[in-house]
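User: Show me a protein chain along with its predicted structure.
Assistant: Here is one chain, sequence first, then structure tokens.
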Amino acid sequence: MIETSPATAPGARPDELQSARLNARATRLARRVALATVILPFLGFLVSVALLWQRAFGIVDLGLLVVFYVLTTMGIGIGFHRLFAHRGFQTGPRTKVILAILGSMAAEGPVLFWAAIHRRHHSYSDRTGDPHSPHLHGEGVWNTLRGFWHAHSGWMFRPELTGWAYYVPDLLRDRLLFQINRLYFLWMTLGLLLPAVLGGLLTLSWRGALLGFLWGGLVRVFLVHHTTWSINSICHMYGNRPFQTRDFSANNFWMALLSFGEGWHNNHHAFPSSVRHGLQWWQIDMSGYVIQTMKAAGLAWNVKLPSPRMVAEAKKKNGDR
């Protein structure tokens, strides 16, 4: 027996049929973009491994990889996450544009899409409705692996509609941010071409341009992707939980280092709008340090931080369980 939806059943209204076609088209496009986003950087990473075997890797390639990794990881962490998704601080139009473009160059989706998905994640964290929870697939080793894959990147191949008007109405009203969102593929392409151009100029060779495209472009995207995706998977499965939250978010030291502070994930779920995820002096949070430096320089204001008393009370509550 073939099930039919109201929009595809006999007698459906023309507007329902049109809406169903548009949704199906959007779903197919999302799957194709997700496939390209996952596969192309992975292929670039495989090529880089082969070239490393031949020692085709120099100081310029390393520099481009590190610089663009830092810039785009902070574009995601400071811009997409702490500024746009959580409104942890405010800044001026120029800084907002720079952060939005750097985040877009990470190739993780347009800024409005990213923020909407993340706000939805917080609304339903590790419950039905969470777009990328690893805990909704049942018990046992196999289902745990399925959950890990889904949280890490599998969820992108099963796209669900997330209403921007519901989750990010404030961002939709920002005309400047909306224009940056529309030009997402331009910024993503720029993130691949800039290291290629710099590699060519710094080495005065086409070989340098190709290696710049590979290391500062594809390999960097591959590393940034899996660092960010690991917050969804690893940091909801492995780590310590000093705060009582309604989900399985956990702090993971190594992921915090690689993601410049995003790995203090239990801290973040306990205090979502805090610009610092590292709440203890020893919890390294490079993105948080940058925001505080921006504040000192007058580039950020209305910076949100939990008071020491709030942190202490939240820990005490967790200890009383």
